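As noted in the main text, all predictions were made from sequence alone. Below is one such record, for Anti-FecI sigma factor, FecR.
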Amino acid sequence: MSRKTFRQLLEKYLRGECTPQEKRFVEHWYGLLETETGESGEELDMDELEGRLWNQIQKKMDTGEEPEQGRIVPLKRVRYRWLGIAASLLLIGGWFYFSQPIRNLLPGQALSVEEQTGWLDRSNTSSRPMTVRLEDGSVVQLSAKSSLRFPKHFAADKRAVYLTGDAFFSIQKMPARPFYVHTGEVVTKVLGTSFFVRTQAESGKVRVEVVTGRVTVYKQESEKQTSANGVFLTPNQAATFFADEQHFVTGLVDAPKVIQPAEAEKKTISLAFDDTPLADVLAQLERAYGIAIELENDQQKNCPLTANLTDQPLYTQLDIICAALKSTYKIQGTTILISGKSCTE
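Prediction:
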């Protein structure tokens, strides 16, 4: 639960519009504030009350401490002119409500009994990335102003989390338990890989960028139905979902990285060429980045290239190649196309 959501819940309580479950949750934390700090809240205004309650919740979540249960704590009449209510508080362990996932449900979609308990919420209110470690050993770098909802214990057949905002995921490989990242209408399915998910709340745009491994990205039509309009991504590839048009556009990441080989196969990758045919140069770049590079003019294949491209970013390497051969390149989806005349002309 984010602080904004909690404040909305508190305001709803004060208007007398809460469900019994929501009412017990608010009253539980109010009672805990009085019991542990001695603050009755009589003279607090709305902002002060909300701040004190939120601090109590965060304190318990950070320490993992369970609050006391089964005690009755009377609440003195609160002197808000706009409140006009008095209640007695029951400390009955409202923890279950706080751990319930709050997510963007599809129309008609309800939470199952299993999904209503045992969930955690992490919100990054700082200006730096926040590390969230999941039960399976996976790690999420949660960006500023982003939140993640995830279960304390994953199901036996799948692992699912709910993201609002941006995050980098490094997922433990478990073929029998695929990992799902739900971001609004978009679902990213992986077995074990690392990737970015970036969202724009205003436009509903969701972008997935793969660093290692492979992922499938698709639109969730309903609880059990997935869209056929999905895409399969490999390292250095990206897909952007446009909510208005309801479709994906594939492309390359802004700064492609060399794909590191397995530990046993690691060796220095040299991209220094001396009168090397262009076809061989591009083949090495394709292997290094996992990106298809094509020549529009086949007569350029044997054009010799002498250049040291080692440790240069991919797009700088392409600039050097095109400058030497008087050519140009452009990105078409997940492919790079080089255009130019034969070196013999």
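The helical segments are 3-14, 20-37, 46-63, 95-98, 278-289, 314-325. DSSP finds six helices and 21 strands in the chain. These features were considered when defining construct boundaries for the mutagenesis experiments described in Section 2.9.
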